[in-house]
Specification:
By secondary structure, this protein is of the alpha/beta class. It is built from 12 helices and 8 strands. An 8-stranded mixed beta sheet has the order 1-2-4-3-5-6-7-8, with helices on both faces.
Length: 280
């Protein structure tokens, strides 16, 4: 990854250490990246290294249980939505983000909604949901999300084999062996208790989406077999101000599979959101 401008460890309200990294122009318009389950800040390599995005201040953090953040084994550290919301809020406060555009990929979209439910959206200039499921209804789950390989008892199937099978279905075109190996390694350090806790999350509602008054962009690959593109199509109808961008020949990682288009659309959306943001 490119050399960061800032790296720091923050402490969440419940005492966990959270790893935060910054790139780009410190005084530029703010983007906060929130990755999905089994990933880390490294997911955003194609964004933080992009010349098209260097004019922005880009901040990313490792969710609890991921990357270089703390990884307690007890499921109680992951079950309460308020913990995820307060963690994101702490990152914003301690990083002195004034009104960022939040880019929330996959489960990161749920973390963002936890934040909005607890703190509102007044502190956000905009939200870019990426391959996310704003309404967490099983009808939007693709065949790879709860595949038999990942959900069955491990028995004779190694965790590494299961995660490798999952990673292979994340993109439309095959990734390099090096990329797959790194993704599997990153997934394997996530506590099993975290993944189990997420299966019991309460359903989000259309009313929650309608409460997000800031601009919203929904980005989704049409070949996503993890979260179906119908999740974004459905959600777009419930946001007061939403753009929907669908990618042909693209799976669950548009920011990696079509990085040039993704980065251009993100830059345009941030400019739009910042220009329309009301003064605090």
């Amino acid at each position: 990854m490119p050399e960061p401008t800032v790296q720091m460890q923050l402490r969440s309200p419940d005492g966990l250490m959270v790893h935060v990294t910054e790139w780009g122009t410190p005084a530029g318009p703010e983007i906060l990246f929130v990755h999905g389950i089994g990933a880390s800040c490294a997911a955003w390599l194609a964004q933080v290294s992009s010349p098209a995005l260097q004019r922005f201040r880009m901040v990313a953090y490792d969710l609890r249980g991921h990357g270089e953040s703390d990884k307690p084994a007890d499921a109680s550290n992951y079950e309460n939505p308020a913990l995820w919301a307060e963690e994101l809020h702490t990152v914003m406060q301690e990083s002195k983000l004034v009104r960022p555009v939040v880019v929330a990929w996959s489960y990161g979209g749920r973390v963002l909604l936890d934040y909005v439910e607890r703190f509102g959206c007044e502190g956000l200039a905009g939200v870019n949901f990426v391959a996310a499921m704003p309404i967490n209804d099983p009808e939007f789950a693709g065949s790879a999300l709860f595949s038999s390989e990942r959900s069955q008892p491990r028995g004779g199937l190694s965790a590494q084999h299961a995660e490798r099978a999952f990673v292979s279905r994340m993109t439309f075109l095959p990734r390099s062996v090096q990329h797959v190996d790194l993704a599997v390694e990153t997934m394997l350090i996530v506590p099993a208790s975290l993944k189990g806790a997420l299966r019991h999350r309460a359903r989000t509602t259309e009313e929650m989406l309608r409460s997000i008054s800031c601009p919203v962009q929904l980005t989704h690959g049409l070949a996503d077999s993890i979260i179906l593109p119908s999740a974004s199509r459905h959600a777009a109808r419930h946001f007061p101000d939403a753009r929907l961008s669908l990618y042909e020949r693209c799976g669950h990682m548009p920011f990696l599979e079509h990085e040039a288009r993704f980065n251009q659309e993100l830059a345009s959306f941030v400019d739009h959101a910042i220009e329309g943001a009301k003064p605090l």
